Amino acid sequence: MRLDKFLKVSRLIKRRTVAKDVSDQGRVLLNGREAKPSADVKIGDELEIQYGQRILTVRVERLAESTKKEDAEGLYAVLKEEVRKREDDGLLL
């Protein structure tokens, strides 16, 4: 399954065009490497997605062409979620 479609079906990203844009910007890693929107996603693959300052790492558990909202979380398992602090947070102005 294409990466952009998986991100949309799993509801990790709401729209496929947004998933494509995020991948094109290099904010999605597939098994540790930058991934294009057309990259092939398989069960067991690890995805690292950067949302602003937040980074979410998930493992692909299932693939499906479409899902209901309540079943979408079953497509992946969250491995790690971290928030990177901005570098200028400690500066006093």
From TrEMBL:
InterPro entries, per database record: RqcP, S4_RNA-bd, S4_RNA-bd_sf
Keyword Transmembrane: no
GO molecular function list: ribosomal large subunit binding; rRNA binding; tRNA binding
Transmembrane portions of the chain: none
Record's keyword annotation contains Protein biosynthesis: yes
Entries under PROSITE patterns matching the protein: S4 (PS50889)
Domain of life, source organism: Bacteria
GO terms for biological process, alphabetical: rescue of stalled ribosome
Cross-referenced SUPFAM superfamilies: Alpha-L RNA-binding motif
RNA-binding S4 domain residues: 1-68
Record's keyword terms, sorted: Protein biosynthesis, RNA-binding, rRNA-binding, tRNA-binding
Record function comment: Key component of the ribosome quality control system (RQC), a ribosome-associated complex that mediates the extraction of incompletely synthesized nascent chains from stalled ribosomes and their subsequent degradation. RqcH recruits Ala-charged tRNA, and with RqcP directs the elongation of stalled nascent chains on 50S ribosomal subunits, leading to non-templated C-terminal alanine extensions (Ala tail). The Ala tail promotes nascent chain degradation. RqcP is associated with the translocation-like movement of the peptidyl-tRNA from the A-site into the P-site.
Family: Belongs to the RqcP family.
Subunit and interaction comment: Associates with stalled 50S ribosomal subunits. Binds to RqcH, 23S rRNA and the P-site tRNA. Does not require RqcH for association with 50S subunits.
Name of the protein in its database record: RQC P-site tRNA stabilizing factor
Gene assigned in the entry: rqcP
